[in-house]
Design brief:
By secondary structure, the protein is mainly α. The chain has a domain at 19-91 and 134-211. The protein has 9 helices and no strands. It has helices at 2-9, 20-37, 41-53, 55-78, 88-110, 136-148, 151-167, 172-199, 206-237. Helix 1 (2-9) runs parallel beside helix 7, helix 3 packs antiparallel against helix 6 (136-148) and helix 3 packs antiparallel against helix 9. The longest helix is centred in the last third of the chain and has 32 residues, at 206-237. It is globular, with a radius of gyration of 20 Å. The two termini are 23 Å apart.
Amino acid sequence: MNEASTFLNYMPAFSQVGSLAFVLVAVGFGLFLSLCINMGPSFINLLQTSIHRGFRPAAWFAFGVVVNDASVICLCILTSIQVVMTTHNELLMFIIAAGVLLFLFGLSTFKREVKEPVPNESVELESSSENDIPRWYVFFAKGFVLNLLNPFAWLFWFSTVAIVSGNMGGNKLATLIFFAIVLGCCLAMECLKAYGAAFFKRFFNPRRVKVLNRVLGLLLMAFGVYFVFVKGLIPMIW
């Protein structure tokens, strides 16, 4: 969050909608957001989905994340950033609940089994049968909900929208257009990440995928523990 604020503060003035500076700042911030900020739980799940299910499901997952971001941004802009938790303790309880769910996501990933290949048959990480692959809206909902449960996504957008809105002189339409460009750039980059992971899927045998599941699961559980204790219980107690 602080890195994003610093990034925007060093950018040139971009209050004039449609100007070259306006577009360059929006695209630059979108790239910065995708490459430097969005490397948490959502990225881990995007990578896992792409490797296990392929590019399209991962793209739907990324779309769900971006739609959630767009919803939060619109909420911030249209309510003049009046949307906040009523008390400090409610915010901490939300962070703790989000941490518990992230931990459960990680535990499920850690325990996920990979089918061993049948002798004399091609190796497949997942069954290729259409009936075995959930519908697109399952992956979309997973991306939306996972990002919804990330308290730092909310705090990040509250802070960022305030900075951009101030730079725009409070012009809500200009702010919406700016973030539309930012999120469009983010979606393109997330799909590129998903395509890259799906491409390298061919180099993963079942044993390597099992190890990857363990690593990704541990990372998600670490995020969960961090949210529950470092950002939730400890501030609540002290």
